[in-house]
Design brief:
With about 375 residues, the chain is an alpha/beta fold. It has helices spanning about 30-40, 50-65, 80-90, 110-120, 135-150, 170-180, 200-205, 275-290, 295-315, 340-350, 370-380, and strands spanning about 15, 75-80, 100-105, 125-130, 155-160, 185-190, 205-210, 225, 330, 350, 355, 360. The chain binds pyridoxal-5'-phosphate.
Length: about 375
């Protein structure tokens, strides 16, 4: 079991920060690398041609290692989840009548692009509704999703962990059913990758799109995506100089080469060499690899178990641990206090969480302790 890692961060002592699902704090090492690289451009002669390639290669290698992707060329550097999803919607050959399956109250960056496809291509979107707040909700939600998959289904576009209440979706089982129909599995991994183990060979998604500033502990403005070989002949949202073959030879850039670099490299965003954000995210991912995501789950389970039991005993609905993440869970105000009352108390106590729909979202990390959770629980009971 890992020990608390708060010493690696610079969080203020007067705050109880339980809100990594909104924005992670920087590791000290990541902040340091960011500042060093920001300053490099004060004297730009220190930025040489090879720097356009070296750090992004390291970042891709580390992200590939984190998600178990065998090949760093199967991953791309993206600025946002919406960008990664737009790449996907542009490159799936839709037919009239196709169905896309999503979940109720999914994050908008994995919804709006599908709605656009719905309008343009005469396909339909099926939303799998969340079951009522009672025992077995997460299990039932998974079952409803799997039952809904049919020969009409072209795409299931969902998160691994629901952003507002932490419900966990069994991607392996979903993939298995999708394989019967050759459908696409598109995952928004923003609320899980970095905190939960993931294996590309086991789950075989067609795309895994991740924002970098939450559980991957990077800066805002940079994320990572994996694309399967179904997309390797695809057309990127933009053509930039670096995703074309031959870009390493600066003297010859104007001998335009129409061929893209292999695999998912073609989907890298323009200016993907980002000299500040790329090495920051690479450093953060290395720390996560060293910690190991399964140990982050174990740690969060350990510090939250007693508190969650107490909240459940006091009548608050929280999903069963087998069907939710350990690092992100929603507390539904079915207990003594209303959401409004709790919000006021949390503000007074300087406890940072977030309010998403009907759920109070709690998202601890390795810098939190059992005492933080006790303090939180006391605001509810
Ligand atoms: C599940 C999920 N996906 C994506 C995002 C961010 O999307 P984008 O990078 O398009 O701003 C968030 C932010 O809260 C999120 O919770």
């Amino acid at each position: 079991m890992l020990n608390c890692q708060k010493h690696l961060f610079n969080l203020s002592e007067d705050v109880t920060y339980l809100n990594c699902a909104t924005m992670s704090p920087f590791l000290q090492s990541v902040e340091r690398i960011g500042i060093e690289n920001l300053k490099r451009k004060t004297n730009p002669q220190h930025i040489e041609s090879h720097h356009f390639f070296t750090d992004r290669k390291i970042l891709k290698e580390r992200f590939a290692a984190l998600i178990g992707a065998p090949d760093p060329d199967s991953v791309s550097i993206i600025p946002s989840v919406s960008y990664g999803i737009a790449t996907v919607t542009k490159n799936i050959p839709f037919n009239k009548g196709d169905e896309i399956i999503v979940l109720e109250d999914q994050f908008p960056s994995n919804i709006y692009a599908w709605k656009q496809v719905e309008q343009e291509k005469e396909i339909s979107i099926t939303t799998i509704l969340a079951p009522p707040l009672s025992e077995g909700r997460g299990k039932l939600w998974n079952e409803r999703l799997i039952e809904a998959i049919s020969n009409r289904t072209k795409v299931v576009a969902i998160p691994q962990v629901h952003w507002s209440d932490g419900t966990f979706f069994d991607l392996k089982a979903i993939r298995k059913k999708l394989n019967e129909f050759g459908a696409y599995l598109i995952i928004d991994g923003t609320q899980s990758i970095g905190a939960i183990p993931f294996s590309i060979p086991d789950i075989a998604p067609d795309a895994l799109i991740c924002g970098g500033y939450k559980w991957m502990l990077g800066a805002y403005g940079l994320g990572m995506a994996y694309y399967s070989e179904r997309f390797y002949q695809g057309s990127p949202l933009e053509d930039n100089w670096i995703n074309h073959k031959g870009s390493e030879d600066f003297t010859n850039l104007a001998s335009y080469n129409p061929e893209f670099k292999p695999k998912a490299t073609r989907f890298d965003v323009g200016e993907s060499s980002n000299f500040i954000l790329v090495p920051m995210l690479a450093e953060a991912i290395q720390q996560i690899i060293d910690w190991r995501p399964e140990r982050i789950q174990d740690y969060c389970r350990d510090i939250t178990a007693d508190g969650i039991k107490s909240l459940r005993d006091h009548g608050y609905f929280i999903e069963d641990p087998d069907f939710r993440a350990q690092h992100l869970f929603g507390i539904f105000c079915t207990g003594k206090r209303s959401m409004k009352e709790i919000k006021q108390i949390l503000t007074l106590e300087n406890i940072k969480v977030s309010f998403r729909g009907q759920s109070i979202r709690i998202s601890p990390h390795l810098y939190n302790t059992r005492a933080d959770i006790e303090k939180l629980v006391n605001c509810f009971i």
